[in-house]
C-alpha cells in the first residue's frame, strides 16, 4: 500500500516525502515539474536512503494519472499539486482555475473509481482573506481575495460536497500559514523562479548577494512596528503535520479543516532582525508602499490541530532562519547547480524504468 503525493517535487511536498519515508510509508510521487525540479526528489532519496516511484504526469492528464493508480496500490493521497503565485493568478485566472480545480476534480474522480477515499489537501490561510480578529480559528468567515485564494476555497467546497455525497470519504483540509525554513541537511528547500514574491526567500537572496535590498511593504499597519505580521512555520514542522493528518484520515471518515501554524506572529522587521541575529549578516531594506491585498496581521489558532491531530509546531524562529540560510548558502542557484555539499555525498543513480523513475542510493 502506498501514499500518492501529488506535487511531491515542490517545496512542501519534498519535505513531506522525507517525513513520510522516515515514518515508514511507501510513497509514489506525481509531478509535472511546472514549478519544481526532479533534483529535489533525487535529494529526498539521498537524505532518506529510500527508494520511491516518481511519475512525470500532469494531473490534468486523466489517462496518465489513472495509470498511476493501475500500477500502484494507492491507499491515500496527499494533494499538494497546484499553482500558488497570487499575482500570477490575477493575470491568468483561467489557468489557475483549470490547473488547480479541474485537476482536483480529475484526481477525485479517479480516487473514487479506485475506491481510494482518504485525502489530505493543501489549503491555505489565504481562505480567511483579511481577518479582523486574532488568532484565526477554523470557524472564522472564509473570503478569498484573489483567484489563487478562490481556487483553495472552491476546492474546499468541492471536497465538502464530495463528502456529503458519500460519507465514506475522509478528507483533511490543511490550512497552512507561512512556511519557511528548509530541511536541516541544507540539501532541499524553497527554490522560487525569478525574483521571489515571498519574504523569507527574498531575505535569503539579499543575504547571499543576489538581490540588493529588501522592500518592506508598508510600515503603517496597526502592529508592533507598523509592518505586516505573519505566522511563520518551519516547513519540517508543516511536513510532520501531514503525517498526523494522514493518520487521522485513515481512522475516521468526514471532512474537516485544520490550521497548521505556530500561533505566534512576527512582523516583517522582527523576522529581518531574527535572521540578522541568527546568521550574522545585515539585511539592507527600504520601506515602500503596502502591497495591495495584504492582510495587516494573520496568525493561527493551532489548538484544533493539537487536539485532533496530536500535532504542534516545535521549531522556533531562529531555527527557521538558520535552516533557510543553510539551504540558500549551499545552493545559491537553487536546484540549478549541484552544491558543493551534494558533491561530497555519493551521487544518486537514476534508474529509468518503463516511464517511471526510481532512484537508488549507490552504496
Ligand atoms: P510548489 O510550487 O513548490 O509545489 C507545487 C508542486 O505542484 C510543484 O512541484 C509543481 O510542479 C506541481 N504541480 C503544479 N501543477 C501541477 C499539475 N497540474 N500536475 C502535476 N504537478 C503539478 O508549492 P509549495 O509551496 O510546495 O505548495 C504546495 C501546496 O501548498 C500548493 O497547493 C500551495 O498552493 C499550497 N500552499 C503553499 C503555501 C506556501 O506558502 N508555500 C501556503 C499555503 C498553501
Ligand atoms: N513582504 C515584504 N516584502 C517582500 C515580501 C513580503 O514586506 O518582498 C511582507 C508582506 O507584505 C507580508 C509579509 O512580508 O506582510 C509576508 O509576505 P509573504 O509574501 O511572504 O506571505 P503572505 O502572507 O503574503 O502569503 C503567503 C503565500 C500565500 C498564502 C499565505 C498564507 O504567498 O499564497 O502565505 O499561507 F496564502
Automatic annotation (TrEMBL):
Reaction catalyzed: UDP-alpha-D-glucose = UDP-alpha-D-galactose
Protein known as: UDP-glucose 4-epimerase
This protein's pathway: Carbohydrate metabolism; galactose metabolism
Residues passing through the membrane, by range: none
Domain NAD(P)-binding, chain residue ranges per copy: 4-323
One MF annotation (Gene Ontology) recorded for this entry: UDP-glucose 4-epimerase activity
Family to which this protein belongs: Belongs to the NAD(P)-dependent epimerase/dehydratase family.
Keyword vocabulary terms for this entry: Carbohydrate metabolism, Isomerase, NAD
EC number assigned by the record: 5.1.3.2
Cofactor: NAD(+)
PANTHER family (UniProt xref): UDP-GLUCOSE 4-EPIMERASE
GO biological process per UniProt: galactose metabolic process
InterPro entries: NAD(P)-bd_dom (IPR016040), NAD(P)-bd_dom_sf (IPR036291), UDP_G4E (IPR005886)
Superkingdom of origin organism: Bacteria
Subunit structure and binding partners: Homodimer.
One Pfam assignment: GDP_Man_Dehyd
Gene Ontology cellular component list: cytosol
Amino acid at each position: 500500500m502506498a501514499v500518492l503525493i501529488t506535487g511531491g517535487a515542490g517545496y512542501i511536498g519534498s519535505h513531506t516525502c522525507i517525513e513520510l519515508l522516515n515514518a515508514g510509508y511507501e510513497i509514489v510521487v506525481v509531478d509535472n515539474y511546472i514549478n519544481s525540479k526532479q533534483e529535489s526528489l533525487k535529494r529526498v532519496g539521498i537524505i532518506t536512503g529510500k527508494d520511491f516511484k516518481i511519475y512525470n504526469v500532469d494531473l490534468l492528464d486523466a489517462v496518465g494519472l489513472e495509470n498511476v493508480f493501475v500500477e500502484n496500490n494507492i491507499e491515500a493521497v496527499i494533494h499538494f499539486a497546484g499553482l500558488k503565485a497570487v499575482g500570477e493568478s490575477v493575470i491568468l485566472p483561467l489557468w489557475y482555475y483549470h490547473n488547480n480545480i479541474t485537476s482536483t476534480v480529475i484526481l477525485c474522480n479517479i480516487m473514487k473509481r479506485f475506491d481510494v477515499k482518504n485525502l489530505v489537501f493543501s489549503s491555505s490561510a489565504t481562505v480567511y482573506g483579511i481577518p479582523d480578529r486574532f488568532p484565526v480559528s477554523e470557524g472564522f468567515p472564509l473570503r478569498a481575495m484573489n483567484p489563487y485564494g478562490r481556487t483553495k476555497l472552491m476546492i474546499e467546497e468541492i471536497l465538502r460536497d464530495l463528502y456529503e455525497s458519500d460519507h465514506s470519504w475522509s478528507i483533511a483540509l490543511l490550512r497552512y500559514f507561512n512556511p519557511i525554513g528548509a530541511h536541516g541537511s541544507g540539501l532541499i528547500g524553497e527554490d522560487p523562479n525569478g525574483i521571489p514574491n515571498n519574504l523569507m526567500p527574498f531575505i535569503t537572496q539579499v543575504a547571499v548577494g543576489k538581490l540588493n535590498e529588501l522592500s518592506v511593504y508598508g510600515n503603517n499597519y496597526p502592529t508592533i512596528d507598523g509592518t505586516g505580521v505573519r505566522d511563520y512555520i518551519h516547513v519540517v514542522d508543516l511536513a510532520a503535520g501531514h503525517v498526523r493528518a494522514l493518520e487521522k484520515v485513515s481512522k475516521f471518515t468526514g471532512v474537516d479543516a485544520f490550521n497548521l501554524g505556530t500561533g505566534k506572529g512576527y512582523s516583517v522587521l522582527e523576522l529581518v532582525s531574527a535572521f540578522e541575529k541568527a546568521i550574522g549578516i545585515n539585511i539592507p531594506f527600504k520601506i515602500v508602499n503596502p502591497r495591495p491585498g495584504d492582510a495587516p496581521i494573520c496568525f493561527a489558532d493551532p489548538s484544533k490541530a493539537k487536539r485532533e491531530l496530536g500535532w504542534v509546531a516545535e521549531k522556533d524562529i531562529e531555527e527557521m532562519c538558520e535552516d533557510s540560510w543553510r539551504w540558500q548558502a549551499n545552493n545559491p542557484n537553487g536546484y540549478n547547480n549541484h552544491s558543493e555539499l551534494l558533491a561530497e555525498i555519493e551521487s544518486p543513480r537514476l534508474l529509468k524504468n518503463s516511464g517511471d523513475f526510481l532512484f537508488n542510493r549507490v552504496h
